[in-house]
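Cross-check.
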Amino acid sequence: MLETIGRVARGSLESFGAAGNLTLEATRSLRDVSTWWPNLSQQARKLGVDSLPIGILIALFTGVVLALLASYSFTNAVPRYLVGTLVQKTVMMELAPVLTGLALAGRVGANIAAELGTMRVTEQVDALETLAYNPTAYLVTPRILAGIIMFPVVVGVAMFVGLGAGWAASLLLLDLSSAEFLKGARWFFDAFDVRYGLVKSASFGFAVTVLGCVNGLRARGGAQGVGAAATSAVVQSAVMILVLDAFWAMVWLLGRAK
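Predicted model, tokenized:
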């Protein structure tokens, strides 16, 4: 048991160490604009635009559930318009970024790891070096930039949809007037709520894409190795999203509260 735990811990630490090295290489590769720029729009579409349906679906049901939960939790002593406050705060600051990030960790992280892992085991990455291409600039940099740019876009849409779903659920299921819901949503609204959620989502996009690239480029052993790389990318990305979520709460929210 101890040997298994040690092996897993060592593999995870090696992956995160490799992620740091790959990040440095990708940063240096930013100077090679002619290599990564043509691939950026394609990766932005794959990572962001194609991920919009799942982000919208998650936000839709999240908004409905939050409105019902708020109505169930509040007693008659609590003003009903606070349903709008709860939906607005939790969707924008926490649930839209985290739930969407976790869903995209499965979709985006696994896709990147499988794609790059297949290229590694079929020696396509080595072929790029033979053709005098920088593999990091060609494969890694556009994916990381696309993740940083497009994750906030998907999360921003999810925020809007989640708030709208909570508003619709309040009107149709809770017999709450539109004026009451909007009063609660506006009463404690702060532009910081949106900024906080979008910055978190950008960090999630960075973590998911970097870990997907690392696990993909380290894949070995054919199809089995590619599958293991995709699985590791999803697990590590999910853990990293939760770690970053706690990090931003301690660094940003705790400091703001003081």
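The two ends are 44 Å apart (CA to CA). The chain has one domain: 2-257. Passed to J.P. for a second look.
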